Amino acid sequence: MNSLQFKKSQLKLLCTIIGSNPQEIEYITEHIDDYYREWFEKKVNKATGDFKKFKDGTVKQRAIRPSLNRLKSIQVAIKNKILAPIPLPNNVHGGRKGRNNITNAKPHQGNKFKFTTDLQEFYPNITSDQVYQMFLHLRYSNHFAHWLTKLTTWKYELPQGTPTSTHIANLVFLSTDYKLIALCLKSNLTYTRYVDDLTFSSQQDFKPVLNNILGIVIEDGFKISYRKTEYKGLQNVTGIDIYNNYIDAPKKIKINVASEVLSQDGMKPYTNYLKIIRRTNKNIKEKRAMNPSLEKDDYEIIR
After folding, report:
1. Whole-structure pTM over 0.85, yes or no?
2. CA distances (Å), 194 to each of 122, 197, 233, 242, in order?
3. Dihedral of the CA atoms 60, 62, 63, 66 (nearest 10)?
4. pLDDT digits (tens, 9 = 90+) for 130-151
5. CA 168/CA 182 separation, integer angstroms
6. What is the C-alpha to C-alpha distance for residues 109 and 201, in angstroms, rounded to an integer?
7. How far is the C-alpha of 299 from the C-alpha of 288, rounded, in Å?
8. What CA–CA distance (Å, rounded) separates 203 from 233?
């Protein structure tokens, strides 16, 4: 089989997997701009409610770029047939079935010291070349990797808002994950990642290791949001408050739950969300019986 025949066979193979045909894939990739929308959202500081700004006063924005029509369907097929079956380490919780912000926070329960940091502009900072190299690293042929990259990136970067972007971001970050896992095993740390939120914790003070953690991330070409980087005991991890003996929803969720209790509306999303969180604390009563020193608030909060 010569090079041209191999190229055609790889495209046919991809089409067989995702339920398309070569003519359709070639047309979409040649007219790729017609298969995306784009708008910009102003970034809001969740703590203050104000817009985030650069030092010169310009409001920070994020580009939202969802795919459209047939490309979106193709990306769903790529996600389900190609990306989702690729195994990821247990510390990864974003973009995975059965994993969420709650499962990401739970492993840190009971650890006294916590370090959280955030990857700045995670999606747009992942280039199409990084995506292509990632597919090559997964042992796909250069032609197969080429078509996958063309179908999942736009404007030379990973777009935010498509079915495939979170899965691809996880895979691009995978080598960094393994470096962080190795460091954490050596330092006896718990490490989880929820998309671009990284959390580390331990029973012992691990402040001397922080520069090593950040160094691994930066050396691999990712940017740190230092405004969202904290090292302290009591922290909110991916929207969950973590205590020694339980986890819970933050105050703003509880306020919304109280409003739902008074409402006649049958839909109670905040109440259901709170129940899911507190369900992970189902053994707290047994723990209190075994440990009388457990704080009363620790017990009452989940009754």
Report:
1. no
2. 12, 5, 19, 16
3. -160
4. 999 999 999 999 999 999 999 9
5. 22
6. 9
7. 7
8. 10
